Each structure stands twice: as C-alpha cells, then as structure tokens.
Fold:
Amino acid sequence: MSETPLLEVKGLTKSFGGVQAVNGISFTLNKGDLLGIIGPNGSGKTTTVNLISGFVKATSGRVIFKGRDITNMPPYKIVRLGIARTFQMVKPFYQLPAFKNMIIPLYSPRVKALAGGKYGDRDAVALDLLEEVGFERDNQVAYKAASVLPQGYLKRLELAKAISLQPDIMILDELFSGLSLAEVASIVPIIEKLLLEGKTIIMIEHRLKELFRIASRVIVLNFGEKIADGVAKEVMESDEVKKAYLGSEE
Amino acid sequence: MLLGTIVYAIINSVILIMMSIGFNLTFGISGISNFAYGALYIFSAFSTYMLLQMVGLPYPVAALVSIVLTAAIGALMYRFILMRVRGQVLSEVIATFGIGLAILEFFRYLGFVGVEYALPVFIDDSFMIGEVYVDAQRLIIVASSVVLVGLLWLFVHYTSVGLAFRGIAQDERTALTFGMDSDWIATLSVSLGAALAAIAATVIIPLGTISVSQGYDVLINALAVSIIGGLGSTGGVIVASLVVGFAQRFTDTYIGSHWTMIVSLAAILLVLVIKPSGLYGKQKELEERI
Structure:
C-alpha cells in the first residue's frame, strides 16, 4: 500500500497581472523527504513556496497538507498547522540578542499548543536550540545582538527559529545563499541530522552541489512550469533541464 | 519661581506622555497613524460625563465603562474600516481623520458645548512640594503615568500578547512565520491605543472642561511628541514630552504664553531638519533617502 503524502500540490497556478509566475505545478512530498526545488532566477521557486505557506494567494490549484485543504489559508494558520518556513533575506530582531530572538517563536501559539500550554524555561530551550544549529556555547555568540552577527550565524538563527516551531514540514528558502563554502559545509550536517530525526524539508537552492548531497528528490522549474522531477542525478541529465540552465545551443 | 516652573514643567511633560503614548503605541505596533486619537479622547470624556450625570453611575464605574467603550470603538474601527485599507498609509490617515472629525463634530452638533461639561477631580486637595502648591489631581496624573508606563513595559516584555506586539512591530512578515495573526494583533493595538487615550482623558480632563476643540489639541500634541521622539518609540515619547513640556512651561513663565506654541512648533521643525525620523526613530530609510 502506498504511503499517503504529507503534502500534495495539485495544479498550482499564480498570475501577477499578465505574468504567469507559477503555471499548473503539481508534486507530492512524503514524510522524511528532502525535496529540492531548483531552477533559474525567475522560474517561480519562491512563488511556489509562498503559495504553499500562504504568503501569496493562488489563482487556481490546491495545496493539501495531511489530507486537509490549506489553499489560500492565511500564513499564521498554516504555521499553526505545522508548516514553518524561512526567507532568503533574513530579518531577525536586530536589537535583541540571538537567544532572545528565539523567545518570540517559543511563545508562539503552535509551541504553546504542542507543549499543552506550558512553555518551560524558554531561555534554556533557546540556548539548546541555538547550540544545535552551531552557536557554540563557549564563545557566548548566542548572547550577542543579532545586529553584529555575521550572515552565517543569521542563517543558523533562521533555521533554529524554524526548528523551534516543531513543524511537520520546514521550507528553507535559499538557506545557503551568501554563505562561504566552509559555512555551508558546517550547515549541511545540521540538515542531515534533521533528516535522520525524520523531519520533512523543502529547500529552494542555487547551490546545487551541496543540495544534491542531501536531497532525496529534486524538482526543476522553468518559466513557472515544472520541467523535471526525480532524483538529482537523473534530473540534471535531462536535456530540458540543461537547456533551462545553460540556454539553447541554437 | 524656578522650582515652581520646574515642578509644573514635569507635570506638563507627564500630561504630554499620557496624551501621546497610546497614539505612539498603535503606530509602533501596527504602523497605523490613528488620527481619530483626539476624538477618542473626547468621546471617552463625554461618555464618562453622560454615564455620571445622566445615567447616575458611580464615578469609577462610569470611567471604567468609558475606557472599555472607547477600546471597543478602536477595535471596531480596525475590523470594519482600517483592515480594508491596511498598508495604504494615505487611506489610513484619511479614514481615521474622517472618523475623528465625525465623532468630534457630532458632539458639537448635539450641543455638547459649554463650561458645564466637566468631570470632577478624584481628590479635592493640594500638597506642598518645597514651596510649590500642587493639587492632588496633578499628582494623580503623575502617579498614573508612572504606573501605566511600567505596566506597558511589563506587558510587552513578559506576556505572549506583548511579545507578539513586539514581533509584529519589528517585522510583520517574520511574525507571521511564527503563527501570529497580524490582523488580530493590529486590532488589539488600535484598541489598546484607544483605551490609553481614554485613560488619559479620565485623569487629565478633571483639570479643566470637556470641549470638542480639545480633541484637535490632543491629536496635535500626540503628533508633535511622536514626531520629535520618533514614531513608534516609547522612550522617544518620554524624552520628547520632557523636551516639549519643559520648553512650553519655561517659555510660558519667562518669555510669554503667546510664544508657547511657537516654541513647540520650532522644536518639531528643528528635529525634522536635523533628524527626520525623530530623536529615537527607527525609520532609518527616511534619513538614508534624505
């Protein structure tokens, strides 16, 4: 018997005026998968995850999460149901120390509901979560204001905030962008650990080499349409994908 | 004379804090400039007056009911009008200013004009501070302001709704990703701002009478203090209130009362020229643009 998908996207379409940003995209996501969404700039990757997470309203199509239709639900309700996301451009609460940035998600309705109304010692939970994503305890970096943290730590902070919501699906929008090779190399094991714990993840990425190391499946978008879906190696051998990335030889 | 001027300058500053803190809080959280703020202040005062004089409720009950009523009007304003124009700054200003005009002029139309419209002082007594006589009502205003600012600080730092307020204030998109309903928080922010206008009216109005024109004065004071302090900054409101409060009182005493408004307006102009986002303003883009 086949597994019921955790997420089903059916014929999702979004038009901005005359521009078809996403055109009839469909795919499924099973529990424990890491789905990579790739494609050239402007191919509709971010719009697709905006549609799934409720930040943009769909023109047509459906998003089914755990058997429930969540199409066009407001973003806060989708988060409460269990889909958390990060953004390409990080926006921490700059004047707060890194660990205090965790307090707001740790006070969120979803965490409250999961904890049965009891929050516990949030500072301790925040520091543990930050350590999990690479804020070393001995250098006290978790106590520094977000405004002085380098991009690598800010991306880790984004990841920690998403983890703190204990989501069923985490959507990571270009988590690796703006990071050095060494920084990416240190974040990849964190993602691998999350997968080992059974987390389900969608990643939009331009850093394909690193993504292909961890993704169980990849879909490729071009001009708002899905042009390939499968394991990374097979997908990248598709002529259509090569054409989308490298251009036509004609 | 100097001690008296200082004491009354402090009281004047505290009155300005009370008059503007609600306006500033609403803007700080939801980005909405509630131009009906002065009208809500006057609505609360007339409502207390009517409940007290016409319905015959005890004073504390009448005041409390008025505060709740004003807060409810704030919430309804957001749900039925502001929610539809949210994010369109000019539309928000026009809508709230229109609501304010309607409320204030409706009271004028009904004939609520005259010295008989006043609220009694809480305690009819006065005290000596050094060699200066200060009436109990003014001391109550100072005490209420200290308690109110303290309670607001505790609220936004130690309650989940308060943290949600801060989350939305800093970045609505990020707050949404944590499952916060931004419309609900904005409703609360407009409602809480309206309640603070009502609380200010409850303690300040007994110093004089209730008049429709005061609604416009309160709005101008709230705008002046918020612009100087920096829209959305509570610390800024406190510092700006002290600057304007002292400037007004010292001008009044040593130069002449006809210069008081000019000094306040000059302070606004000076701050706008030197630091357009206000003393503690967070809208850096304003300065970057200029």
About this structure: The mean pLDDT of chain B is 89. Chain B is about 75% helix and 5% strand.
